[in-house]
Amino acid sequence: MYSQLILLAIIMAVVIGRLVGTSISFMKQVMASLLSVIVTSTVYWYAYLRDHQSDNFGIDGWLWLLSMVIVSLLFYLLFEMFDPIPLGERGERLTEAKNPYKRLSAWWRRQRRYVQVSIIALKNGVGKNLAIKRSPASDRRAAVSLRGMLEDCGGFFIKFGQVLSTRSDLLPPAIIEELSKLQENVARLSTAQVEEILAKELGRPKDEIFREFEMEPLAAASIGQVHRATLKEGGKKVVVKLLRPDITAKLQLDLDILVRFAAWVSKRSAWARNIGFLDLAKGFSASMKEETDFRIEARNFAQVTASLADSQTKVKIPDVYRELSNSKVLVLEYMEGVSVKSGTAILGERGIDRREVQRQIFDCLLEQIFVKGIFHADPHPGNVYILNDGTPALLDFGSVGRLGTLQQDALKRLLIGFEQRNAHIIMDSLLQLVEPKQEIDQASLEQALSQLLVQTAYDAAGSSDAFIQGLFRMIGEFGFSFYPNVAGAFRSLITLEGTMALLNPSFNLMEESRRFARDHVSEFLPVGNYADLKTTATNELLELLPVIRKLPRRLDHLGTMLEKGEVSVKIGFFADKANTSFVTKWISQALLAFVGTAFGGISIGLLSLSGRLSWERFNIVAMFGYAGLLISALLLIRVAIHAVRSLKQTKE
Questions:
Q1: What is the pTM of this model?
Q2: Percentage of residues in the chain having pLDDT higher than 70
């Protein structure tokens, strides 16, 4: 008897698992089916078989099997909902811990941290201040509460706030100003910890590699810290960057909570949804995961160095000792110098023009963005050095951005449009830089850009800065958001502007960008003279020849179809992601409503059955009936609440 029930459970697990496409493990599928068999068989025997001994498999038996399938689906749903293993984009199971105890322990730590973050958020009033209608006063309150929450959470939440403080294209000035106050307070690794990391990662005693190794770090950050050392072979001075030993677990925990917090804020605030707050958190999470693998940083160093091999700028980038580096240790060439903040003294002693050094650094970064397509994404003063001989240098390529040729061309046209005061060119380039929207009022956008150009004209001192600030404000008003890599380029330029002001207090970002464009006119305008015009026209014609050759045949074919009345138009409703998401959402709600209704029907049947029998004897049947009604009510109420929330979101 028991073997038959187990066999039935296995068969059900195989069949139902295939039908519903679940991602839970096979053992959990068998467990769900077995629980269904046990529960329904117990009810079936207690309610019917014990008083109706029959060898025939009648209508009651089919009802038993149907109930078994429906109850097993409920257990499948429960296991799917509470399965702690995350899934990838294609539904694959993503986990590093196969041990159920470790997964449960990780889940518990995550929930505990999430509760802690939620309490901090509520204490600082984040949800309340972000949900109210926007105004200068509400922006200030929201900024203070958001900074307080990120500061109290610590860790990578502070770093996320620092990244947000550079997004003036999305966030109002009050929030930018408040988040700029965030500072990291990081404890240094002990000598024992440094020794342990070196012994584990280098694979041999450090004395075999380094003649000297200074245990006092040059700098410490949330991800790692930097030490100075001297190689045993050759006696060259190097910098050794060490990844913190516990950073991976903390990173995974905090970033997971950060994304969940961003999703919570986005649900409560229409403004957070409009600026893509959740996407910002996801983008930050992806970049931070890259920064914790020093092999990626070593590759970035190599790629940027190779891209600038023929550059006219005199900016130094340290060499990487790839043979001594791995994912947790990075060995770099040591450069004698100081941060650009303190570098003006060196330049003054050597009689080097600070503005010329500023131009070298600025041109190097713009060449990376506009010409090479791979650029330093975080050129803050700590990552820009002035060496002892006055040569500028770029450090720390853990964060690097990449731009495609389409986006590079759009950025160039944006600069040309500003130079020519042409609103149409600016609009055309801007639409190539922002994520597409279903409805774009191009006429209103062009009018707004035209007004912005007029408002910022004839002000030689601040027209460039006013134009940039107005452009970012307009992007927010029209509900646009830059592509992440484009936003990274703008963030790099904004950070660079503050760094350059240390060398040249009169530095103007747009004026210097226009100078760079004039100095590199061949990169911005491929047609500089008659020979260039002839070459460009020839290349364009060669690209168009295959299309031109096919054009007469296609026109003839189109004319024939029009003559025969065979022209048809295909409209792909599901080609739009919004339509697909809408249909998927409501189908899932309809299925949930069906399951709730089915449970309600089964429960009513059980209560009807128990009503015909004595209560003392069949109270278990009534118990299952009432439990089923409760489940049915919960599912149907969940569907109703979801529908009401959807209506509210639509109204917003």
A1: 0.63
A2: 75
